[in-house]
Amino acid sequence: MRRTGAQIVWDMLRREGVGVVFGMPGGSIMPIYDLLEKSGVRHVLVRHEQAAAHAADGFARVSGKVGVALATSGPGATNLTTGIATAMLDSIPLVCITGQVPTSLIGSDAFQEADITGITLPITKHNYLVTDVADLASVMHEAFLIAQSGRPGPVLIDLPKDVQAAETEFAFPNRPFASVQRAVPEPEDETLRDVVKRLTRAERPVFLAGHGVVRAGASASLVALAERSSVPVATTLLGKGAFPDRHPLALGMMGMHGSPVANRAIQAADLLVALGMRFDDRVTGRLDHYAPGAVKVHVDLDAAEIGKNVPVDLSVVGEVGAVLRRLLDSAEPVERAAWSKRLAAWRTDAALRDVLGRPEPTSLAAPRVIDAIWQETEGKAVVVTDVGQNQMWAAQYYPSDAEHPFVTSGGLGTMGFGLPAGIGAQIAAPDEEVWVIAGDGGFQMNVQELATVVQEDLPLRIAVINNGSLGMVRQWQEMFFGGRYAATRLVNPDFVQLAAAYGIAAWRARTPEAALAAISSARAQRGPALVEFQTTRQGDEANVYPIVPSEAALDEMIRRPEPGRDLQRASCRNARGRAR
Amino acid sequence: MKRTLVAWVEDRPGTLNRVASLFRRRAFNIESLTVGHTEQAGTSRMTIVVDGVRTDSRKVEQNLRKLIHVLRVEDVTERPAVLHDLAMIKVTTSNGTRSEVMQIAETFGGRIVDVGLETLVVEATGPDERIDRLVEVLRPFGIAEMVRTGRVAMACDEDSRSGRRRSGDG
How far is the C-alpha of A528 from the C-alpha of A545, rounded, in Å? Predict the structure, then answer.
């Protein structure tokens, strides 16, 4: 069968089961777009290519499928890069297809030419420049295999315009492509027995659950194992949902803004079993003081992660779901009364300092907003966050579980991620209630995507946590840079009017009562809705607590001052580390 | 200690770039890297020497394995293997010293591949430290120019391990 390159692109996308692509056309990708209408694939037209990559990413995280983004050559392709790097650091399967100038012009600095395979080499799992149309079908097949297999990641295919137009004899590729896939080793029986033995003997064990558990859909096995062996579970930011946050054994999030219970438990533990996580620096705090008394067991799919940041005593390279099931087969029931008693005491202390426990709130502290959204949605929303304080508050105050994903840019920490990723998440789960939680800073980094929301008629709910500043940086300036607030104050547009200009219903809330009413109105709206929450701008309620300063150990966190205490004094006394 | 890794890679455009980019991105310290064809069409072979003190060679190995075009990686440091370097050394000579230089080259198993009026070129292959010594001995005569390929490695037949000494201990 004779097919052109552009036809092969759509044939292969359909064959890979792709139902939706995110993109924006331009000169060098026009032959592909020319066939869009006949393709039967839904196309979501974004307003900036960065948003195409983030939307494909949000779609992938919620659907479990590969996200696909299309862009033209040059600036179209370079605009994708932030989204590609975001997906790379969070191990999200993407296939990005970029147009390229014709092969005869490559290397000539032609109009809208950029060496995108060169540029994306370190931020993709793999990439291709296809110069012969005869290779295209196998390249596309390989790209989807690579994106999803093993530790997932983004793959980019650069397609010169003449290759899109060229014809070739086409057949669906059916060779095995063994070389592109990495065999996942079966965990050794002996090692697993050793893990079980240590688990039985440990007095203060903690499970650390990461993104790998979420990706493997292994939450149920983890819950069963934790319950049988009475092991509390802390999750990473991307591991939110790996273990139900409301479970009695849940310690909450670990790390820089983790729950004090999780951080104390890790530092006091005699056994850590890390499952599908990579000991990121935001998780460990100061490395040489990390969990000093713990035997460390690391289970991960990626052998290159073992011992990368934290030296481990025992490692299992394998698929975390399979490992958990194997452990569950042989784990013995254990009770740990002393350990749970200690954890319970820490829990009580943490609850005492919680903002939510303060009597008669008059100001609108951001945690109250997140809590109100959680209450109103009964914990059943898909939450997509931006990056910064809003992200940490959402992580702390919106409990997740396996059924209700928490979508966030963890590794790269990409401001501007929330709104476009929310678009992808809503398309992946059209019947779910999807809430984007963004700050006033990050929201404006891709605010143009409100138009995409309207054009696609998505019932997205958007919460803008407006504290009039780049809040996380402001917090660091307050705590570690002597209160010199350089370039963090934002003069913002009227977000309600802005939403109205796009045709989106919007509300504004300044008090806890108004917040509840606005959330309820937004939820009742049939189409998209936005609520601007004008939250506390100063004082301890404007800051994220606890916070582990850089170069400090996990249990050297700065806690929220108890009401009435002077904030500056409290933070100065505790701040041991240098800020970065 | 130097560690020697051998990687079999697909002979595709950009493969060397991917490997080099990996080393740069992860800040791996590489002593030398050589690439060449193998007995199999489409497969190239890289010999990579890593400074084992500054860089954890296991990390290099694990990360190389993640590259799609890398077919296989083997650490041959602990195995009986032939580890050789090739050097071409242009030595300044005069009528008085020419024969002496030629004699030294011969002693080290090298050969003279070019003779000029004021220089001659010594070519030598062998374990790095033997080449190092040759260079040291020739230095007093004046080295005008030198090029070394860096180490290439080949593991010995497993069956002949007994009694065989490793050639070229880095």
Answer: 32
Q: Cβ contact (<8 Å) for B65 and A303? A: yes
Beta bridge partners of A268: none
Three-state DSSP at A207 gives strand
A111 carries an active-site annotation? yes
DSSP string, B115-151: E-SSEEEEEEEE-HHHHHHHHHHHGGG-EEEEEE---
- CATH architecture label of B2-75: 2-Layer Sandwich (3.30)
Question: What is the per-residue pLDDT for A465?
Answer: 98
Across B136-149, b (16+ Cβ under 10 Å) vs e yields eebeebeeeebebb
Which residues in chain B are closer than 8 Å to A125, comparing Cβ atoms?
68
Which residues in chain A have their CB less than 8 angstroms from residue B26's CB? Answer: none
In the predicted structure, residue B168 carries a pLDDT above the cut 70:
no
- Answer yes or no: are the C-beta atoms of A238 and A410 closer than 8 Å: yes
Task: Please determine, for residue A570, whether its predicted confidence score (pLDDT) is greater than 70.
Answer: no
Burial degree of B95 (CB within 10 A; 0-12, 13-18, 19+): exposed
CATH of the domain spanning A2-180: 3.40.50.970
- By CA distance, what is B61's nearest residue in A? A304
Given A112, A181, A448, A525, which residue is catalytic? A112
CB of A174 less than 8 A from some CB of B? no
Q: What is the DSSP letter of B12?
A: -
Minimal CA separation from A241 to chain B, in Å:
28
CATH topology of domain B81-153: Alpha-Beta Plaits (3.30.70)
State how far the Cα of A320 lies from the Cα of A300, in Å rounded to an integer. Answer: 6
**Residue A475 known to be catalytic:** no
Query: What is the least distance, in Å, from the CA of A54 to any CA of chain B?
Result: 24
pTM here?
Answer: 0.93
Closest CA to A274 of A292, A248, A295: A295
- Domain pair A189-348 / A356-544, same fold: yes
A176 pLDDT band, cuts 50/70/90, is low
Out of A126, A179, A308, the one facing B59 most closely (by C-beta) is A308
> Which residue in B78, B79, B69 sits closest to B45, CA to CA?
B69
| pLDDT mean over A553-562 | 89
Query: What is the predicted pLDDT for the residue at A179?
Result: 67
Question: At A50, which amino acid appears?
Answer: Q
B62 closest CB neighbour out of A126, A180, A304? A304
B62/A303 touch (CB, cutoff 8 Å), yes or no? yes
Which fold would CATH assign to domain A189-348? Rossmann fold (3.40.50)
Distance of CA A227 to the CA centre of its chain: 27
What is the ipTM metric for this complex? 0.88
Catalytic residue among A12, A16, A49, A125: A49
- Residue A415 falls in the annotated catalytic set: no
Using DSSP's 3-state secondary structure scheme, residue A4 falls into strand
- Picking from A53, A106, A60, the residue whose alpha carbon sits closest to that of residue A78 is A53
Task: Give the residue carrying structure tokens 């694990």.
Answer: B62
